[in-house]
Amino acid sequence: MYNLAQKLLDWDLAVLMLVRIHFGAGTKLNRQRVKNRRLALVSAALLTPAAVLAAILALWRIAADLNWTNQFAIPSGLFSHWQVWVGAAIILQLCSYLLNRYGKGGNTASS
User: What is the mean pLDDT of each successive set of 10 residues along the chain, which is 111 residues long?
Assistant: First the structure.
């Protein structure tokens, strides 16, 4: 007397079929990293005001050295020098420029 499992096993061995499925080439995936480009544009937008702030602090320090304004907010240490603030402003603006260029794909707008 066959039980159900034996019947299924016998049926499975008797009916073997090979199925091949061929898919077409389809469309190529977009390999650009859109999220990274968007993050680069957001970061560049935030770095420009930071560069302006660093330039303002450099000007304030220069004005304080010339006695045009009151004392600078940071009286001693590394950040009490105007050269540090000018350098920070230049580096921040350069990073903003490079991130903008990466975010836009290196393409310049043509009009």
Answer: 64 62 70 75 94 95 90 87 95 95 71 42
Q: Which residues of 33-56 are buried (b: 16+ CB within 10 A; e: fewer)?
A: eeeeeeebeeebeebbeebeebbe
CA-based end-to-end distance of the chain: 86
pTM: 0.62
68: domain range? 33-103
Token pair for 6: 């034996």
> How many domains does the chain fold into?
1
What distance in Å separates the CA atoms of residue 91 and residue 50, rounded to the nearest whole number?
10
Instruction: Indicate whether 9 belongs to any domain.
Output: no
* Other residues' Cβ atoms within 10 Å of the Cβ of residue 83: 10
| Integer CA distances (angstroms), 59 to 76, 85, 92, in order | 17, 9, 16
